[in-house]
Amino acid sequence: MSKVKAFAAQEVGALLKPFEIERRAVHENDVLIDIEYCGVCHSDLHFVRNDWGMSEYPLVPGHEIIGRVVQVGEKVKDFKVGEKVGVGCMVDSCRECSSCEEGLEQYCERGSTFTYNGPDKYLGGMTFGGYSQKIVVDKDFVLHVPEHLDSKAAAPLLCAGITTYSPLRYWNVKKGDKVGVIGLGGLGHMGVKFASAMGAEVVMITSSPSKTKDAEDLGADHVLISTDEGQMASHANTFDFLMNTIPVGHDVNPYVSLLKRDATMVIVGAVEPVDPVHCGQLIFQRKSIAGSLIGGIKETQEMLDFCGEHNIVCDVEIIDMQDINTAYERMLKSDVKYRFVIDTKSLEREN
Which one is the CATH code of 161-291: 3.40.50.170, 3.40.50.880, 2.60.40.1120, 3.40.50.720? Predict the structure, then answer.
């Protein structure tokens, strides 16, 4: 085992502060990664504040990890020292249930082991995430990152990227489809980039007219202002697919009215109740509301390869680890375009 510098919350709602953690010794199937960058996901803040009632402390967040391999176990053949790699939201699963056998580890029927705040079967206690200097991960949950992608901008692909890529693939979004992305934030801006690269006609749906230029710069063909009843009515029953990235509970009914018959709106943002749904819209036109998590390891690698082919990365703002608490406050105000990423080399300054 080795000691590693990190930042942790010691109790509910506490500020993140310097903390020393232990990483396990490298086993035969393990990869030791020197973390270079770690994205800041909104779920990090939820876990720090125990908004979902499942946090264990001390808690070291971070599941959008980019780094370099510094050591591999004796049975590891696919990763080499010096290679650029990534780690996303999972570091293990049961590998035996039907979901795992289908490459859908995110839906593991016994529960995936999350990169942080998951049971650590090696050291006991809970797993610690990427707000740290190093991490040891089983090779089956490590990802190859195209070398030419900007490392700092690639980090959020490991969560925000795959969260938006996976439903576009599952619902078979293709060239010519009319796709609406609801909400322009960390998830929404990636949804626009991916749908555009897939050849769809992309409509950014937002309540903020001020975001029009940003949406167009990201690749949106049109912008629909959701608070304008006339605009919404003019787009009724015209969308092949909607991706809803709004991160809090809200009224989904106005968006359902935008769907064509047999079309789907997938919710990837709100992990909480939404307002009551008027089922008449669903029944009379066979519309669907669905949810989607991240992707499995195979699909996440596919996403990274797609990003490499199309040169897709996230729009990010780099911060030092010491600025994370301020970043959380700014994130609550949507004061970031569109994802904070921690330069973990800043941890070297901690005594």
Answer: 3.40.50.720
